[in-house]
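ARCHIVE CARD
SHELF: 3
SLOT: left
DATA:
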Amino acid sequence: MKKFVTILAVGLSVVLTSACKPDFGEKNYANRAEFIAAQIHNPESKYVVVACHRGDWRNFPENSISAIESIIRMGADIMELDLKMTSDSVLVLSHDGDVKRCTNFRKVFKDEPGKSARISDLTYAEIQMLSLNRAHNVTVDSIKMPTLEQALRCCKDRICVNVDQGYEFYDQVLEITERLGVTDQILIKGKKPIEVVAAHEAAYEHNMMYMPIVDIQKKAGIKLFNSYLEQGVVPLAYEVCWQDNEDGAFDDACKKILEQGSKIWVNTIWASLCGGDGNDDDAAYIAADKDSVYGQYLEKGVSMIQTDRPEQLIQYLKSKGRH
């Protein structure tokens, strides 16, 4: 009798889990990256896209292949990365313009006083002499700074990619994405005027997805945001940044974006980008109720979130049937 009850309980659990699991039609796509791109293109999708800031930098060196592999295993949707170019024109993944913080540069070049640590002054061969540091400044000898091509080969068909610092290299990035067949899986963003972006894209038959970054409480950001609204140009999404919620600027921007038929991307990576204390990943981490932080964004129609705590956010979204 006990065995029957156990089997019945397990069976009921499976039925309930299946019933609660959202179906976003992922099986209808050739691969996961194609599915994610489709959600980005669909303003009606209820799926919330999770972007990971520099990958899983809490456990691996930021912007490394290991950090990418980790977030893919978590079930994240977008790898956010930053680009720099070496002196011999190789695109590598790095947020900083120099390698002092993220590598063991000082140890490797200790016998060369005055040696420039700027990536633009180093050759790719010199970059490969260095090892990457984890967040707590421990060098991992086996992990090197990857090239953009190496990173995209790792991401291909498995996860979409957001090129953050890199619009200045648009031509070079596009050449690589076209050669690898991943252009449709790449989202690149920037603060350029509409006319500049349009002229750039007109030079190619096939382009990456593009998203403007608008800080809705700063003069330049307000001007850029208004230009999209006034000209009736509808991007796939806007990355929205704001410093406080006192003037209702964020609420107003969300309303206008949704009315326009676009999507809203917010950054919960630190408080100054999303309205101040109590609105970011760390606030959610210490909160007993994650809904007190992340719920406000879902209520306002946000469907793309960049996070520094992907496992936490994905778990929350799954509990809401949004991932």
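SLOT: right
DATA:
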Amino acid sequence: MAEKEISEISRDARVLYNKANEAAQRENLDYAIALYNQVLEKEPGFFECRRALRELQLKKTGGGGGFFKKMLSGAGSSPLVAKGQIALRSNPANALAIGEQILNSDPNSSAGHRLIVQAAQALELPRTGTMSLEILVKNSPKDKSLAIEFATALSSSGGDTKQGERILADLLRQSPNDGELNQALKNLSARTTMDEGGYTALEGGKGSYRDILKDKKEAVSLEQEKRVVKTEDTTERLISEYEARLQTEPINLKLVRSLAELYTQKNQFDRALELFNRVKSSDMGGDPSLERSMANTVVRRFDFQLEQLDPAAPDYAEQSAKIQAEKLNFQLTECQQRVEKYPTDLVIRFEMGQLYFQAGKISEAILEFQKAQQNPHKRLAAMGYLAQCYAKRKMYDMAARQLQNAIKEKPVFDDEKKDLVYNLGCVLENMGKKEEAVEQFKLIYEMDIGYKDVAAKVDAFYAGQ
């Protein structure tokens, strides 16, 4: 899950968010807080909404509270804290929502903010976690471990690293011989220097500061290389420049890899793979991200071949099917190699299951998804796929049970939950339970009439009555 801007959230969530803002402007704090929480149930990654909610929570309570108020609040929130900790294991999004329930009553609750930090880390919402860490540091300004965690989070989330440096420096003045604090401050200062200079740490953290670019012209080139959208002229210029440098820096493996990625963007796949293989045969060859880059290059080559086919050609269907089969066979073989190399990586297991499912190898897919559901980030998606596997086998009762369990663990009615509910409706249809099936479709109809064919299904049901 990624943090989102307002332009990236759903229309329904945006409408609620605007209503919440209007309520906040009218000082209707309780209503605004309730609406902000509803928005976050739909869009947990909408950071601006969470920040607005936090401001209102603090405003409502006057920014804090006396000792006895905190004692009563802490006692009252204990069941929610316990519930949140349980939810963290299987449903961090639910844990995040529980954390907000705690903060609605006590916006300075350390237990509530720690729960949000842990849930945000599981959901990969760095700014959300950093915001709560800041309040935790204010609650415990002398906690060294907390200060280091907050400073590191600021750096990772693109926040104000200078603030982190100040906090660590203040603690270091009180304990000048603390080696851990001293090292943390050095690391943060180095990261700040790199960020200000337009540099990033080497991928995978295996490099050293000597690898950081020294030449300003090269820094500009690298910045251009990393842009999401590149013009053809820029890419051509970078390739020409890097090829010339490669003549004088043949052992610069970072340069070799960057050049390979540029050739991939230009659809010159043979040259790209030649350069990737040069890196693979070096001391850097064991980097898992390199293996993924090489595999992605081969997959892109298959996709490019498909794009070059003429849909009007008489043998289009035959040629397209042939390339698709070759692509899937490559992906299966490559992913299987990674599974054997990293057998405990459940994300790779999930990917393997998807490929088996696509290939129609249902038994093999079931095995991988059963393992992958132990990963909290892939649990619900794996359960959804398991249900599809059971449905393929016409094991509809098992499919329905799997989907019902997944739906219980998904409090937010987002696209993932819509998919689970829709699939449950389809399974119930196949079981002959028409009325139960349409109840599932109606749940989606009430939220999103344009989702798949739910409108047609619901309308047909009422037309038949």
